[in-house]
Write a structure and sequence with these properties.
With about 190 residues, the protein is mainly alpha-helical. Helices cover about 55% and strands about 10% of the residues. It has one domain. The protein is globular. Its EC number is 3.4.23.36.
Length: about 190
């Protein structure tokens, strides 16, 4: 996995090479991570605002994509699967530090496009849930997956947790990072 985190080699690491022989960079444009970060946070917060205005706590799920996605309002004062319940403020500060730390890393150490997008997904998800924790002392969740619940019920008799867009960003980013860690490292000429 180390090759993924090395990212893109800057031409400044090879100052003794003539410009024509320096490695060409496929850096992510400096504006892409912050723009993607903001778009994902806005979408997450809009969906949470919609859920609070249109769904009621304790009511049965409302089908959105039959058998795949339902809307059902719940709140979480902890982390995934309600771990650390009652620690919303503490976890929010941690999430905020992680999310902003990742963005800072991408700014000061530009990475490949793939890695920039993956890390931005994780950062946006962390900050999206941090906003809830700091503002309300709990995270608003509203996406229920009957398909995932069928799997977890078969495996251990429990329903899959209700989640939100920020959670999806963190999980997708983490899964993509994990999958990419198995890709062979490109050999340097």
């Amino acid at each position: 996995m180390a090759h993924i985190l090395h990212g893109v080699t800057s031409s400044s690491t090879a100052p003794d090479l003539p410009p024509a022989t320096r490695p060409t960079l496929r850096r992510t444009p400096i504006w892409l991570p912050p723009l993607l970060f903001l778009v994902l946070i806005v979408l997450d917060q809009l969906l949470k605002t919609w859920a609070l205005a249109n769904l009621k706590l304790g009511e049965p799920p409302i089908s959105f994509i039959r058998g795949l996605i339902d809307w059902q309002l719940t709140f979480n004062t902890g982390a995934a699967w309600s771990m650390f319940s009652g620690s919303a403020k503490f976890l929010a500060f941690g999430r905020l530090l992680v999310g902003l730390g990742i963005l800072g890393y991408l700014y000061y150490r530009p990475q490949s496009r793939f890695l920039s997008v993956v890390l931005t997904l994780i950062a946006a998800g962390a900050v999206g849930n941090a906003i809830d924790g700091l503002r309300a002392g709990r995270v608003t969740d509203m996406i229920h997956s009957p398909a995932l619940s069928a799997v977890t019920t078969a495996l251990n008799g429990t329903l899959f947790p209700i989640f939100n867009l920020a959670d999806s960003c963190v999980v997708l980013g983490t899964l993509l990072l994990l999958v990419a860690s198995f890709w062979p490292e490109k050999k340097k000429p």
